[in-house]
Amino acid sequence: MNLYEHTIIARQDVSPTQLKQIQDKYSKIVEKHDGNVVKLENWGLMNLSYLIKKNKKGNYIHFKIKADGKTISELEKNEKIDKNLLRYLTVKVKKFDLDTDYFKKTDEKDVLSN
User: Residue 33 in contact with residue 70, Cβ under 8 Å?
Assistant: First the structure.
């Protein structure tokens, strides 16, 4: 089993319930093909660097997946035809960083005290 970090960007006008359905849909595809979603992070709505399909923002969802290559190709095949998604990216990694939460909202007090 290989380790992958997989990020998808959904359209900005997707409702929270649709976002949850997208997360569940792709988690089930991974599990159906004998993979395992180790961690799922919803990074939220962020600005895009440039317009993608006339969108300025996108909802980012990040998966940490333990699976084989066939599972990833099946996942990407389904994402390619999904109209709610703008982009997806899969990166093979040697190990997961499960401790750091890069997009966690921090208070200004926490930032100033460090």
Answer: yes
